[in-house]
Amino acid sequence: MKYFQFILVVLLFLTACHVESSTENKEKESQSIPPVSQQLLPESWDISPSFKLNGETVIGKRDTLALSYDESFSSREVIKANWYFWGEKPTWKDKSVSVIGVHRETHSIEKVLTDQTGHFSWVNSVDLSSSQLSDATVTSYMEFSKSGRWCLNVYIGNEHVGQIVIEVE
Predict the structure, then answer these.
(1) Distance CA 81, CA 67 (A)
(2) Beta strands in 17-168 (DSSP E)
(3) Percent of the chain having pLDDT more than 90?
(4) pTM higher than 0.85 for the full model?
(5) CATH classification number, 38-168, choose in 3.30.1360.70, 3.40.50.300, 2.60.40.3830, 3.90.550.10
(6) Which of 157, 129, 156, 152 is nearest to 69 (CA)?
């Protein structure tokens, strides 16, 4: 009889461990992100630093990539923005700028570039031009589907040139 009770206790213990382990695995799976989108996530979700560029406050990384905008970032509103790039390479000539937005909470990957009429696109329709403030610049319009923290992955042609993390109201 004691042998039977011992086996029963061991089986209950093993079953409880298996259920707990399965629950932990399911929680981990639900929090995981597909490998493709993990490349688009920033190392830190801290808002990118701001700095002055010819008296104008911009956000980004000095001497690499910066973004200026007219107002605060608000969801569902078209925002005019100027992008500044440093380190111009010959491969940038006649290339367009693309932006892939990733929302922090949902990890949704979205088009954020738009024209003034609300037509979304992955690629800005205007090519890079030269600038006195940076090696290259382009003006675009952006709109965000929801508030929260966003990581903007910026490309020139197929080259990833950097990320900017912003807060959208």
Answers:
(1) 7
(2) 50-53, 56-61, 65-69, 79-85, 96-103, 109-111, 113-114, 120-121, 123-127, 136-142, 148-156, 159-168
(3) 45
(4) no
(5) 2.60.40.3830
(6) 152
